[in-house]
User: Fold IS982 family transposase from Spirosoma profusum.
Amino acid sequence: MLTITIFYQHSGAKCFQYYYQHWIETQMQTYFPHLISYERFVARMPRLLPGLFLLLKWLCAQGRRTGFYIVDSKSLAVCDNHRINSNKVFAGIAARGKSSMGWFYGLKAHLVINQYGELVNFMLTPGNVADNNKNLLPQLLADLQGYCFGDRGYLTSLFADFYARGLQLVTKLRRWMKNTLMPLGNKLNLRKRGLIESVNDLLTSVFDTEHTRHRSGMNGQLNVLAGLVAYCFYDQKPSIVVPVQKRLYP
Assistant:
């Protein structure tokens, strides 16, 4: 069941029922000799959530710890803004949030990648959780050392704590903040944050992690995790070249 769910994200299909009944049950039946009906499969899908979560965490652990990381969040709207009050599918799971594109109602996928586009860590939260949340960041950046580049949303009072354990969180300053001198290497690397935008674009356009057709909040979260797992197996991840810098750790 995990294989079928993850392969759906690679298939390019936009309807899981069509994918299951016309691809899996007809063209791939020899690979899955003990198939169950579509209705029973969908009913059992919530059982996959713990295993899919652990698989994704294991894949993140396989991402190379290079000392160069980029952090960002991806908004995952679950319905149109005009239908927020009538949305019952994600009640208690989703929340109103604001991104650079405006207000939305849904979830947030917080991602950390290295320069090779490999996923290093992730967290899935309601849409109203801030990027620099003091409970979120220590878990998201746990055990990482080196340099982590993010946008202004990651300005945090935890900077000294991260720096003390060997991780420098590099962000741009807000307009009203006093300007400070920044090493040229960090300034140049800040411009390479577009790499994670390329990853977010792949998650939307190729792996279909964001859409408003969910009929179950549990299966909606399952779809996001399956999309992230499918991305980890993607051969053509975007990447950049990073010059060697002096490290903060041995």
Q: What stands out?
A: Residues 2-232 form one domain.
